[in-house]
Amino acid sequence: MYFDQNNNYFDDYYHIDNINDYSINIDNINFNRGNELYNVEDGFNKGNMFEKLYSKYKNHVYKLKTYNQKDESLYKLQMYTFALKDLGLYLDTHPSDQSILVEYQRIKKLLDTEKTKYEKKYGVLYASDVVNDDKWTWINNPWPWDKGGK
Fold first, then answer.
1. Distance CA 110, CA 108 (A)
2. Residue 87: which domain range?
3. Cα separation values, 122 from 70, 75, 78, Å
4. pLDDT of 122-137, one tens digit each?
5. How far is CA 98 from CA 90, 101, 109, 144, in A?
6. Can you spell out the DSSP letters for 94-112?
7. Is residue 68 part of a domain?
């Protein structure tokens, strides 16, 4: 077993001195991610919505903690946004996959609902969403990522 200077692992059949002499046959790489998805929370915590592409790292348990309703709402917004990004990347190369497209649209509705709920209770999330014409209110504290707040 070998490791390079960046601590990347190589099987025994590679010799570290001539590692650059090996070519990769792209035909042998499995690009079939399938369309079996994790639920939104698991996909977010694992950094991958597709079950076949996930590889566990050293028995690490992925779960962010929230301490109040505001944090929980921000957590949901991050989960939904991540899921849409990951599914969107898949749809870029598989635009006719109806099951993923339906899931994308379902999560988009959840994101829109959660964003509306958050902004009603805590204020806008993005400077581009400020609607006050009399005064620039984006600078008013607390910002969405600040602890405490309302």
1. 5
2. 35-129
3. 8, 14, 16
4. 888 888 888 877 888 7
5. 12, 5, 17, 35
6. -TT-HHHHHHHHHHHHHHH
7. yes
Is residue 150 included in any domain, yes or no? no
Answering whether pTM is above 0.85, one says no
Dihedral sign, CA of 119, 112, 62, 87? Answer: negative
In tens, the pLDDT along 27-54 reads 555 556 677 899 999 999 888 899 887 7
125 C-beta neighbours (distance < 10 Å), count: 15
- Residue 23 resides in a domain: no
Token readout for 88 is 């969107």
Q: Is residue 113 part of a domain?
A: yes
For residue 67, the one-letter residue type is Y
